[in-house]
Design goal:
about 180 residues, hypothetical protein PF0899 fold, about 10% strand
């Protein structure tokens, strides 16, 4: 074998090795690119899933906030209506032309407390209560109607004001009133 043939064979052998190395490098590059692409796709998909989950959570929170705000607005409106009903009841009691019959009934039911008591009421009912009780009556209370009996010793107080009756009645009946006003809501 001549030197030229040996050189040619070495050159061909070198070219084959070069081509094999080049092909192996291309395959390695393709494998790395495919791996990077797969990891990129996986990362993008994970981020997309997380974003969708976050969006869904935000939407749920937003809906919950909106529902809570709507519920608060409804409750506030209901409270305002109930307050108006209560105020109307107060106004009707305050506007009674003659509440002598109511006062007389309260006096009769509390005769024992009246024997040694001071009667306090609003300015409007002073004369009526003096006549009904025969007691000393002071018209110094800012109330709708009715009266308070205080013992001379100051150790006993009987509150027979319409305000107190209305408050007690209101506390017991407010749930029923709300149920009637908003039946089925």
């Amino acid at each position: 074998m001549s030197l030229e043939q040996m050189i040619e064979e070495i050159r061909q052998q070198g070219q084959r090795e070069f081509d094999e190395i080049l092909e192996a490098a291309r395959q390695e590059r393709e494998r790395i690119l495919a791996e990077v692409q797969a990891k990129g796709d996986e990362f993008r998909n994970e981020r997309s899933r997380q974003a969708e989950e976050q969006g869904a959570r935000e939407e749920i929170r937003g809906m919950a906030r909106a529902e809570l705000d709507a519920r608060k607005a409804l409750l506030q409106a209901q409270k305002e209506v109930l307050d108006e009903v209560r105020d109307a009841a107060r106004d009707r009691l305050r506007a009674l032309d003659s509440n002598e019959r109511l006062l007389k009934s309260l006096v009769e039911q509390n005769q024992g407390d009246l024997e040694d008591g001071l009667v306090r009421c609003n300015e409007r009912d002073v004369e009526t209560l003096r006549r009904l009780t025969g007691n000393e009556v002071q018209g110094d209370l800012d109330i709708i109607g009715g009266f308070v009996i205080e013992s001379q010793a100051g150790d006993r107080r009987t509150d027979l004001t319409y305000d107190t009756f209305l408050n007690g009645l209101w506390e017991r009946a407010v749930r029923d009133v709300a149920d009637i006003l908003w039946k089925g809501h």
